[in-house]
Amino acid sequence: MGRPPKPNFGYVWTAMDEGTTTTTSKALFSFGVIADIQYADLEDGYDFLGVQKRYYKHSLCHLQKAIQEWNGREVQFVLQLGDIIDGFNAQYKMSERALETVMKEFQKLKAPVHHVWGNHELYNFSRECLVHSPLNTKYLEDQTLLSSLINNERSTEETASECYYAYQFCPMAKFRFILLDAYDLSTLGRDTSSKKYQDSLCLLRQKNKNKNLNSPEDLVECQFVQFNGGFSQDQLSWLDKVLTYADKNQERVVIVGHLHYGSYCLDSHGVHHLTLEGIIATPPESNAFGTIYVYNDRMILKGSGSVPDQEMVYKSHHYNSLF
């Protein structure tokens, strides 16, 4: 469960150079990115700390504008990076209706949508429910020998309460996208009798001595809070197999997960980390989504509203990229 704090946003890592060569070729393909819609039929409110304002109803308007732009740009697909509806829906028994409302908007999109699961999905639904919901887009997985071999290696005895939601797809040759389950190890959405629930709760209590396990107060490792999550060894082993295959076949890889608050970083290994601002915290006069254009030598994010543009140039001697 060793993830950074504030786990509510879509993120991207990409191994690239800091070169400044000009891209003159036409984009190979493009895709849309959006995070933290957190729709609810509620008046504006604030986050659990009472600091950040949240625009529950208006998030739907932002989504509508994003879909309109993506349809005009003819993107190949869209990454919905988690927290599609807000946890308040569960409190008011509005989860199913809220999800139907948002999915009706996504049905207007001409391109397929890949859905990531965040903590708010798990506030509203159990994992068993999510597996049978429109938010399970594993049917879009690349049905190659690679995926067949990897899937066959997963335990056939693994129940729905213990499984993880992760898959990969290939929008074109030499580019592979991987969606990870950032709440694989978590108490959220899992049956209390499951091994992963018990293991996650045990680890939380070891690392977090607060009565409220959502509180980071006095924590040395502030990621150990209940609204956070982590990866099981099974999922990491699966990821390693996909990346090994990608390395051998000189593929560029985009890894998609769930994190919060917009930011960008190029780490010491030449890997680009990108997170998006959340729709839920975006006032009506702005927006927060993006379109990423993929070229032979780089990816370029064209942001809307509070999402800034970002150029990410591939590192010449590496192929793996991480979102």
TrEMBL record:
Residues 31-261 form the Calcineurin-like phosphoesterase domain. SUPFAM superfamilies: Metallo-dependent phosphatases. It comes from the Eukaryota. Signal peptide: none annotated. Pfam families: Metallophos. InterPro entries: Calcineurin-like_PHP, Metallo-depent_PP-like. This is Calcineurin-like phosphoesterase domain-containing protein. It comes from Phrynosoma platyrhinos (Desert horned lizard).
